[in-house]
Design a protein that fits this description.
heterodimer, A: five-stranded mixed β-sheet, 7 strands, 13% strand, B: mainly alpha, two-stranded antiparallel ribbon, 73% helix
Amino acid sequence: MVDRIVMEVSRYRPEVETEPVLEAFEVPLTREWAVLDGLNYIKDQLDGTLSFRWSCRMGICGSCGMTINGDPKLGCATFLVDYLPGPVRVEPMRNFPVIRDLVVDLSDFMAKLPTVKPWIIREDELPVGDGEYLQTPAEMDEYQKFSMCINCMLCYSACPVYALDPGFLGPAAIALGQRYNLDSRDEGAADRRDVLAAPEGAWACTLVGECTTACPKGVDPAGAIQRYKLTAATQSVKELLFPRGAR
Amino acid sequence: MTTPVRAYRHPIPRTWWARRRSYRLFMLREISCVFVAWFVVYVLLLVHAIGSGSDSYDQFLDFSANPLVVALNVVTLIFILLHAVTWFGSAPRAIVVHLRGRRVPESAVLAGHYAAWLVVSAIVAWLVLS
């Protein structure tokens, strides 16, 4: 087996470059090395100035989203052997401002996320002494898929709508809103509606479907958005037909 | 955290959609609406021609037999099939049905759409041919 592979890593040092450039590094290769291992080797052994985000190394923290050979991927879940003979090109996630090398600015998402109120909303909060809100396995199945999101932002990186219209609420935020709307313990769907059913919310999505392809956790944001469109449209028709009765 | 002044924003090229197969397929699906619109116009022209007597119907048939119109309609058929298939393909993700407390599988929702298409097509064919 080839025991080395070339990684072409995007470098952007605002004090040096006006736009990102690719820099090639040759790294050792073992069968179990992920792209993230290669980046850590570069940082430890070849160039300590290389900047990238990472933490858990096991697809849970959502820190190491990057563009690998043009595809949005988690660095820790993408293996170098799959790119032999190389080179493998590592760039920052698309559709976000690049701060340095592979580090992007996620402020936009951090501002949008709380607007969908991704927490359980109750009309009447029960006292803690009354115990937990119970839920059957079938009720949990309704939203569990959407609750697997790790906020890695690969769906935003894959979404051409977000690229062209940065005002778009985006796949993960809408899927997270749906995650709570579909939770039997939640009563906040009406509170989330202004944001989710806005022109920059679910309706901005044109169903390219790349968010679902990119998602490393099987969340299916595209499905969540289409489902919400149907819910919002049904609600509007109900309100039109029964202006007093619909809720 | 705010975006530093020197943060780099990748420009979006006009040909962004040519970059990936899935983007190209998406654009074809979006363009299919133009052909759906043309088909609606074509059917309205047909209805108008039928309503205006046999001469105008014959004229419409001549117009339809023009190789350019035939070619356009063949392309239209392909795009309408693409439109219908992709539309049906996305329907099970939007429509979640529960029967007797159990979720109907996505494949059944999809099959239901094709069955409905078949039934409507059969009714239209029966109306036209009888």
